[in-house]
Amino acid sequence: METDDVALVTFGTVVWALALAVALVLRGRLEDAGRADWVWVLAAGVFIGLVGVRHTRRRRSRRMTG
What we know:
Strand content: under 5%
Helix content: over 70%
Order of helices and strands: HHH
Low-confidence stretches: none
Oligomer: single chain
């Protein structure tokens, strides 16, 4: 079974980015609830997702040319 790994990782990264945007909008409430670190967790998820997108694109490119 073949899957489109780039699309899957990109989708996941977009979900993390949307969650980060919501957390930034609600940052005051998160701080009041003692959950300000969620913003950093979501930012790290976006960063790791971007690394994953780059990795899966490179891997796909190597498989197509090799």
